[in-house]
Amino acid sequence: MKTKKVICENEGGDEMNMKMPIGIDDFAEARENCYLVDKTGFLSKFLPQHAKVTLFARPRRFGKTLTLSMMRYFLDIEGAQEHRKLFEGLRVAEDAATMAWQGTRPVLFLTLKDWKGKSWEAMLENIRFLLGNLFSERDFLLKDDMKERDCRNFQAILDGTAGEPLLRDGLAFLLRLFSVHYGRKAVLLLDEYDAPIQEAWANGFYNDAIDFFRTFFSRAIKTNETLDFAVLTGVLRVSKESIFSGLNNLAISSVISGSYADAFGFTKQDVQKMASDLGRMDCLEEIASWYDGYDFQGVEIYNPWSVINYFQYDCRAEAYWINTSGNHILQEMLQNVDDRREREMAGLMQGKSVQTGLNETFVYSDMGENKDDLYTLLLFAGYLKCVAVHKDEEGDAVYELAIPNREIRSVYRHEILRNLSGMAGQSILREMMQAIVQGNAKRFQEDLQKILLDMASVHDTAKPEAFYHGLMLGMTVWLARKYRMESNQESGYGRFDLAFFPQAARLPGILMEFKSAGKIGQMKKAAEAACRQVEERNYAERLRVEGVSQIWCYGIAFCGKRVELQMCVLD
Questions:
Q1: Any alpha helices (H) in 76-163, and if so which ranges?
Q2: CA distance 67 to 89
Q3: Which tens digits make up the pLDDT trace of 99-109?
Q4: Rounded-to-integer distance, Cα 18 and Cα 373, Å
Q5: By the 8 A CB rule, do 448 and 565 touch?
Q6: Domain containing 391: what range?
Q7: Cβ neighbours of residue 212 under 8 Å, at least 6 residues apart?
Q8: Are residues 58 and 200 in the same domain?
Q9: 294 in a structural domain
Q10: CA dihedral 543, 546, 551, 553 (to 10 degrees)
Q11: 446 Cβ partners below 8 Å, 6+ apart?
């Protein structure tokens, strides 16, 4: 095995790689070339007691694909001897009973993350192409003594000429061929099983897709005698009535129920060992503040994607999780929240919690009819954590939810609040945006003050200018059709904080400069100083180069939740 040059040694004197596995989902590549957190203890817990079919529902970027890849290398009968070396020195190697499973199963590892399309016809064509690739990679299964019908069907999928009925049977067909070839039942590892369902729902062909995948999944994992067991991963727990119809052998592990709570994400012990190995024990408090706070079935969990990015980039605390993938369902639901939930979600930014029921089982066709769906989705997708569980008067569970950490507070501001149909009241935000464009400084200041009182948290004022800058940038998404927004870009003799480049000649160009004041009495001078800075450093230069003749400058000073604003017109 090829091993990358190491960078440091651990306490035992063994060589160790410090490169983080950012964007690496293949276990062998991560094991050979990167620092790898040892999660192989999961194999010892799972394999002796696994269900026929297990679904793991966890947020994006929490290590689901890497975990399935680890299972594949551990179990796969192909390359078993070489793969065994990957687990030397890891926790599972100390467990003789579990090591007896190593290299004993034919394994089919499949991800559905790319099974997409903007219409059902486009998705079906993509399925046809990707299944063809899957069969091409396993053309060794096509044998001379194969039944004529099987040979014909295999060739049709391989050539991309298979019709929809054959594609529906494609996964079950391949598992059967695996079982025949190896002389024993196969293991199915299916990653991001819900990706095509989300895509279909977002693009308006949910019924076509659910009809296809109900058959596709059921034939492979419900009535398939050639299947040993299956493991599925995704973000959402889709109703078995809509996609796993009649499947009674499905075990589910989610963020609030089931087993294997620590299988995905980093535990406190994982992070402490990383910090020790990398010589950064001094960073533990900051890591906890930014990336800890999740609670999976009562176990404290850190966001693994953000932690490895933090260590990779010289222990710089940032919101690494932001915009790591889209979520059309969440965006759609946020556009239709009621006033009560607008207020509740604004309160979350203040460190408050919300109390709600949860609808763990999603039926996409009914999405949004139950008002608890939004909080269920936010919890499952990783934007909220469960703080406590109570019982109401009728004995039903009521969940107390809150924002888990500083990173998610930032992500929440950018990915959640900007998608709301209103924020602290739709009318306030819209009127404030209109006031900005019209040069109504008084109304702009009044509305911004209302929003700060309703939404800002004292926790956000530790780095005040950065918070207020991010807050304003997030809110200005409402003007995206009229302006091109740029932040922290060079112009003239320095960098402006925020600039609005108009998309129509009739609109003014706008510059915003932010200042924090130590005392309330200093706010007016700070706002005036912000305006002077814009003029003296000629921040309007890039606007003028683009032919903008009318330019307004807003100098904005903050002190805690108070705001002072000065406006000037630039010649």
A1: 80-84, 96-99, 120-137, 148-159
A2: 18
A3: 999 999 999 99
A4: 41
A5: yes
A6: 328-419
A7: 124, 127, 164, 167, 168
A8: yes
A9: no
A10: -20
A11: none
Domain total of the chain: 3
Domain end (from 386, 419, 452): 419
Q: With the C-alpha atoms ordered 367, 369, 375, 376, is the resulting torsion angle positive or negative? A: negative
Domain co-membership, 218 together with 241? yes
pTM to 2 decimal places: 0.74
Output the six-digit token pair for 132: 């063809």
Inter-axis angle of helices 206-221 and 120-137, nearest 10: 30
- From 253, 288, 311, the end of a domain falls on 253
| 360 and 455 both lie in a single domain | no
**Residue 395 resides in a domain:** yes
pLDDT per residue over 459-500, tens digit each? 555 556 666 776 776 666 567 668 888 888 899 899 999 999
**Closest among 545, 336, 346, 510 to 440, alpha carbons compared:** 510
Please give the average per-residue pLDDT across 449-459, as a whole number.
67
Element containing residue 485 per DSSP (H, E):
strand 483-491
Specify the pLDDT at position 424.
Answer: 45
279-288 residues labelled b (16+ CB within 10 A) or e (exposed): ebeebbeebb
Instruction: Say whether both 396 and 507 belong to one domain.
Output: no
Give the amino acid at 517. Answer: A
